[in-house]
Amino acid sequence: MKQNEKRQTIPYSCLVDNVKVLLIFLVVFNHLIAFQLVKVDIVVRYIWYAITIFHMPAFIFISGYLSKKPQSAVKNVKNLLIPYILGYSLTWYAQIWLGKSVDYELLRPSGTVMWYVLALFVYRVTIEALGKVRFIIPVSIIFALWAGTRPEFTTYLSTSRIVVFFPFFVAGYLWKSEYTRAVRNFKGKWILIPIAGFLLYAVPNYMITNEMPVDIFRGNHTYLLSGLTDENGIVIRLLMYLISYVLILAFLALLPDRKLPLTFIGRNTMGIYFFHYPIMIIMNGLLILKIPALLNVWALLGVSLVMMLVLGSPPIDWLYSGVLNLLSFILFKKEKKIQDEGLEDEYDSDEWKYEMHRRRKAIEELAATLDTEESRDTASLDNKSTEDPNLKTASGLAGKQGGPS
User: Within a 10 A sphere around the Cβ of 292, how many other Cβ atoms?
Assistant: First the structure.
């Protein structure tokens, strides 16, 4: 038991928080530029493609790494399923408030960012069993490649995305802190930068030149619905896995493992993820994102930073956590500890007195039997000691040695 607990322990590292800060910034920025800027700036479109390839895979990898400690189903419902329902409802209401007619499809969270929370719920409920499967990473990749050819995997319950991104979650789940130390101590780790840079340029360039949509990286549909043949879809998805794993290694190897001014945000990323998209929908609906001054990549970088700082601040985190705790208090019974289970607590019927009487009587009869046998043995020993002098001497010595201690 102790070995298992030791294996599941995750030592605190500023590196993990710094990686989360970078990734949540990219999530906010990538969503923000998608509303208007990618339509008018070809360079930003390249950036959009490049970020979309790896930002959620890397985020899911970190989520897997932080999911080593087993969690109860109730805890996952509190921390993930309830936020999923609330986040989807908030996003839906933001569009209704703007006057749009949108169906409330809780089981089909396309058009929101809450699919990740639903996927995380599924992953954490199943990972303890699936994480023990041999060769689970290559098996899950092969399964995801095949799933892209099948119409059964759709936006319903985010089944397609759950399958497509599972290889990153299980890779993070199986990743150990020793691996991170080995990567950081590797002298040739800087080679990861030109490799990642080349891949991030070549793949978006090939796709944009051949008018391939970015949808393939979202994993939301089959290859055909993403505008690709099955063969092209499999190749592009394989490249996504390759680029994402290379970038993940680069982050773990090269980002600083020390406390920085923004490191604290790494502990508050859930609130940022929860609130940022409904706010962007409202900003876009009010035409704020069409202001000429905001049709600039540097301006939106600043907006993304401000949004991350505000939504990752302690007051917002307190608000987010407070609402979840209140709902958990309302919806779930308080867990009670069972201290002492006496015999009288085993029976709720009227026959408990008879049962207790029967047990006491049996105990008394057993005690009487033991007393009788002890008396008989003592008498037999006394008779033998009278006949055998040596036994009598031994009996006397034993009596002396068995005195008060």
Answer: 7
